[in-house]
Design goal:
392 residues; 15 helices; Rossmann fold; globular; seven-stranded parallel sheet; single chain; 2 domains; alpha/beta
């Protein structure tokens, strides 16, 4: 069977969906000897899996700068013509859309839905993208013969918001990459020197955007610094993304000095209580997570939530939100806090940072919880679904 995979996220710096695309594609190629794969990169097709886009950078393109009204729709129309024409010519029998927005296809279609944030949080996305999702996404869902949801929470959202038949949806969790593991101190120190980060620090990893609730974390950290006079810095490990300018203004108003890596002097960095690293390459992310005294991820909504899982795999204690899919991922191995409860977040951060036994216990439980999530198991489940859909 010839299977077309939309791997467009591999052309950009990889965050959650890009990691899913890479890991699932790699593991499918490893375990599947019966099928032939054709990879679609948005502008071209290839029989080879090409990994690109993993490069440092301050900003992910999250806005509509340099565009024109209707640009997203025009681009979508071109894809809607090009993709079915080429896949028909190449005689593909099954198409797996990994990016949530299915294209027209003449054969069987499997669709992975990561989250429904453009419907639930339209203000957290460019206006035209949110508009396309509202007007077209529910209809495009009907093209799928089977839908893969990456969490039970995403499945519930699909049923509640889009009226999808629950019997059409299968939950297949993300995995945890093997590079995330407890590391030796000297490995961690070597990587931190490259990033100009010193111990001790509290860590957040993810895009700097409103849906991630970063300002609440910054404010909780500011209160903790004043109340307890802790020596820690707050490291925000991720790119400035959609509406990040408002977050930076909010940080200014909180009177916390912050530093964006590469912008300013060494003296500015030493004075800063908050450090923004920009996009973190793969090789630096595990040691950054290992070196943190605490990982905090107060996101308002996640389809899955990879960063807390990867932090737990490193043995780092985790505090995250009790909302959306995050309780499914963290289980009882982390501390769950309502995403709007600043005082509770301050209290739990203080408790973890002041209790070495609690940090050790959370770290041990976290590594065991993370071991339950495997990319190989994910690929095996997806391959099983391919077989079932092909036979229907």
């Amino acid at each position: 069977m010839k299977i077309a995979l939309n791997v467009f996220p591999l052309t950009r710096p990889r965050t959650g969906i890009g990691i899913y695309t890479e890991q699932l594609s790699r593991h499918l190629l490893e375990i599947d000897r019966a099928n032939e794969y054709l990879f679609y990169y948005g502008k071209y097709f290839s029989r080879k899996l090409v990994i690109s886009g993993d490069r440092p950078g301050r900003k992910i393109e999250g806005g509509e700068g340099g565009s024109f009204p209707g640009k997203a729709r025009c681009r979508q129309i071109l894809k809607d013509i090009y993709f079915p024409a080429v896949t028909a010519l190449r005689r593909c029998q099954l198409y797996h859309e990994l990016y949530s927005y299915p294209l027209p296809f003449h054969g069987k279609t499997v669709l992975t839905v990561h989250d429904l944030s453009p419907l639930l949080f339209p203000g957290a996305h460019p206006r035209e993208r949110a508009g396309l999702w509202k007007s077209e996404f529910p209809g495009r869902l009907r093209r799928a013969d089977r839908i893969i949801a990456i969490s039970n929470n995403t499945k519930r959202d699909l049923v509640r918001l889009c009226g999808v038949d629950p019997g059409k949806i299968e939950v297949v969790y993300y995995g945890c990459r093997r590079i995330f593991r407890p590391m030796e101190r000297h490995e961690v120190e070597h990587a931190l020197r490259k990033m100009e980060i010193d111990f001790p620090y509290v860590l957040y990893v993810g895009a700097i955007e409103p849906r991630k609730n970063v300002l609440l974390l910054v404010d909780a950290f500011r209160r903790l610094k004043k109340e307890k006079a802790i020596p820690h810095k707050l490291v925000l490990g991720g790119p400035l993304a959609w509406k990040s300018e408002g977050i930076l203004r909010g940080m200014d108003e909180s009177e916390i000095p912050y530093y964006i890596r590469g912008e300013g002097s060494k003296e500015d960095l030493e004075k800063a209580e908050v450090v923004i690293t920009g996009y973190i390459p793969n090789e630096l992310l595990p040691p950054l997570m290992n070196g943190a005294a605490l990982f905090v991820f107060p996101s308002l909504y996640e389809g899955f939530g990879l960063p807390p899982l990867e932090a737990m795999a490193c043995g780092t204690p985790v505090i995250t939100s009790d909302s959306s899919s995050l309780p499914e991922v963290v289980g009882d191995a982390g501390i769950l806090v309502p995403p709007d409860d600043r005082e509770r977040l301050v209290l739990e951060m203080k408790r973890v940072l002041s209790d070495e036994d609690l940090r050790r216990d959370l770290g041990e439980r976290g590594t065991m919880q993370a071991a339950r999530f495997s990319w190989k198991a994910c690929a095996e489940e997806v391959l099983r679904i391919y077989g079932e859909v092909a036979e229907e």
